[in-house]
Amino acid sequence: MAKKKIKEIIEEIAFDFMTDNGLELYNVEFLKEGRDWFLRVYIDKQEAAEDDYVDTDDCEKVSRFLSEKLDELDPIEQNYYLEVSSPGMDRELLTPKHFEKFTGKLVEVKLYKGVDGKKLYEGVLVGLVDGNVVIKDEDDKELMFPLDQVAKTNLAVVF
């Protein structure tokens, strides 16, 4: 089964349940590791306050729901392990919605190829603008990186 289709199936069957529980689907991965397949579902709070995170009860609730629905529909041919978790504090920003949601937050931008001898930049996310990841560095200088040159953009974890 195509990975894209699995993601669409999960989005379709989980949408109402997630919405009713104040949650949203952050990402879905269907991967083979060794000889085992893993269906990883990452969930987040819809409109989370600064200190409001997905907890184990949320993950368990979604896991039970998805497990029951997936057993009922049986859309995946091979055996797999279902894992439901938070995307984590250092979550990768994957979609335009993620970039919009985390505008104003501190991020790390990792590049495929170095610019001015650096592959890692940190700054406050301005947003995803015309296909570019835009941040402001510590000197309040705006830096722009074409999306096709960005390996990853993650929220920075500050303690």
UniProtKB/TrEMBL annotation:
Domain Ribosome maturation factor RimP N-terminal: 17-90
Compartments where located: Cytoplasm
Cross-referenced Pfam families: DUF150_C, RimP_N
Keywords on record: Cytoplasm, Ribosome biogenesis
CC per GO annotation: cytosol
Main location: cytoplasm
Domain Ribosome maturation factor RimP C-terminal: from-to ranges: 93-159
GO aspect biological process, one term: ribosomal small subunit assembly
Entry-linked InterPro entries: Ribosome_maturation_RimP, RimP_C, RimP_C_sf, RimP_N, RimP_N_sf
UniProt cross-references to SUPFAM superfamilies, sorted A to Z: YhbC-like, C-terminal domain (SSF74942), YhbC-like, N-terminal domain (SSF75420)
CDD domains for this protein: YlxS_C
Gene3D superfamilies linked to this entry: Ribosome maturation factor RimP, C-terminal domain (2.30.30.180), RimP-like superfamily, N-terminal (3.30.300.70)
Family: Belongs to the RimP family.
Function noted in UniProt: Required for maturation of 30S ribosomal subunits.
Protein name as it appears in the record: Ribosome maturation factor RimP
Organism of origin: Emergencia timonensis
